[in-house]
């Protein structure tokens, strides 16, 4: 009897107290990309890409975008809802674009709702747009049916091979963490394509400067281990393209808490892909190329680090490494310390293959 | 259902033999006649139960050949295996009903002679139908208890293999055999089984599945708590592990217990192929069952509540297949699941040839037509068909029925609470399984309670040299499977 009563109560609670809002897949217009442009200090102009799937079998999604102005992201979304035929759902958001002008004024208030939301994945890609995000998101591109799909593929598949990996999770960690500054890829609409333009450097949450595509690649080499891309070096009036087979990086901190010294050890393994007019059939000749490669990478890396130090932006996260090396490291001193910390780069290069003709 | 009033022992009187005869005479197949005019003996038997050869060659020819005056003389003269002289009317009745020839004197003589001449129709031993395996023995149990015990005994030719016989069923008087190996099987298990079978109070017992339901620890659970097998090799094998087997006359299967859930996923074939392959196949079966239970509920939960978890590349396929379908995912899923159940029921009831046609009609025609008519999405059709297929991978047929059933509460919870509902329902099923016992032994052993030594033959099957001990789960009296190497040699080597 007691048992029956228990189950009746459970069933009653389930049935009568039941007011979960269903989000049936085909009744949701799924937002896949959003971008924000600068209007004035308090106002943003937000564009939302939410492809529409017409009814029927084997149908192709149709580009659909909505633009509205507002102070907060959610207000803008509500404004967008005024035009959308179905309930807009942000759960599958993949690309989040920030106009350069917005980035210069600070992105904290834009990123905050992303961090709070439980619906949004931590792996969505952020990017800074050189130009209007509205134009970029509403344009038609010849190489893709759906704009947002092109954008997310570009950010996930292409740019992640050229630029250091960033996603919402790392951006939030860099924004809040000590001794590290966020960075994002810059993209630009160019004719009927979207193009990767380099790396945007942030100081706190504000855009300060950018790195070229080449420097962005060097930055990636100093930031993480990876294995794709090409290093191009000049050797004896010829250009050599070396495929990156493996690139490892290791930070070593020495000195004292007041005078830390940082050495970055980079190990590169490569394979010569192009080198017209070069014969590399002896070890000595390969060593010579390796040496040239080492020299060039060291110069590039050190120049990049000087630039970062001059900008006083610690995008490589050196501060965090120094802090974790010394016990009770005085955090407040790092701001002034950073521009003058000696950071050396030690590159070790190794060419394992020069192709099948030699 | 079980009738509570137990009949008391009936007091038979001598005159009841006459009553018995007259009662039986009402049946057309009962023969009762005087041997000849001057003979004092009467002969009675059921024509349909006796072997005519024995009646004519071994009994009537001898009786007619010489003059007998007493039943003792006949008993000495007839050379048939089982002859009994008795006055006990209840045993007379019982044996007549089993095909004995009754010989008695009309006069007040109380004793009767019973000559066994029973003819039992039985099927030839055939190959296993539901537990077929490509390699290994191809014998299956038949409906005769003696044949079945014979099939087991020839695999365990030791005196320790013992069979206790009970009679169950007020009307059916079914012979039930409890088989075990003394010295290995736990006495407690044997006693539990015998006691529970003795406690059965019902008028008929047609098959082992009756016993399986009547002596189950939890009769309301959809999960069977005794393994029902039609393979004598499997039965013999588990007997040697220390289990108890129950065989019923008239049933082509044996029940073995105590059992655990993992045993329902082990096919006997697992032992006939290399251990690595056997283990992989067993894991595939486990995966298949999980898939079968969870795939449709997950489809409903995700499409109703959690579009966020659908990968980008699948999204287009799902949206375009769902687009234009007039039902919410739950209705779509329930309708399709019911269609599959319909096909299954129809296929099972129809003769084999027609059943196949129904399968094709249902699978191809209805499925494709439903998708083209825009009633279901083709993604769900694949999911439901696959999960139906996966539920058939269990080697023990009863479990696949349980899997069929528990899918529906999962669907309901998926609709009510989404993924949380699936989790809640899983928790409830798990709690039920944790509580379940088989002959008083935990059903989820060796996972819970965790017994690492029994893991060697649970989710995976390790090679035979790792299977040195019998499962602790059954509390075997003799744990070691491998024989201890004796330190002394029995005989000298040639070169010694």
From TrEMBL, chain A:
GO CC annotation terms, alphabetical: membrane
InterPro entries: GerAC_N (IPR057336), Spore_GerAC-like (IPR008844), Spore_GerAC-like_C (IPR046953), Spore_GerAC_C_sf (IPR038501)
Compartments reported by the entry: Membrane
Domain of life: Bacteria
Topological relation to the membrane, as annotated: Lipid-anchor
Keyword Lipoprotein: yes
One Pfam family matching this protein: Spore_GerAC_N
PANTHER family: SPORE GERMINATION PROTEIN B3
Family of this protein: Belongs to the GerABKC lipoprotein family.
Name of this chain's protein: Uncharacterized protein
Organism: Pseudobacillus wudalianchiensis
From TrEMBL, chain B:
Compartment(s) where it occurs, according to its Swiss-Prot or TrEMBL record: Cell membrane; Membrane
Membrane topology summary: Multi-pass membrane protein
Top-level division of the source organism's lineage: Bacteria
A single cellular component GO annotation: plasma membrane
Principal subcellular localisation of the protein: membrane
Keywords recorded for this protein, A-Z: Membrane, Transmembrane, Transmembrane helix
Keyword Membrane carried by entry: yes
InterPro entries recorded: Spore_Ger (IPR004995), UPF0353/GerABKA_families (IPR050768)
Spans traversing the lipid bilayer: 283-305, 355-373, 379-398, 410-434
A biological-process GO annotation: spore germination
Family that this chain belongs to: Belongs to the GerABKA family.
PANTHER family xref list: LEUCINE ZIPPER PROTEIN 4, SPORE GERMINATION PROTEIN
Protein name: Spore gernimation protein GerA
Organism: Pseudobacillus wudalianchiensis
Native organism taxonomy: Bacteria, Bacillati, Bacillota, Bacilli, Bacillales
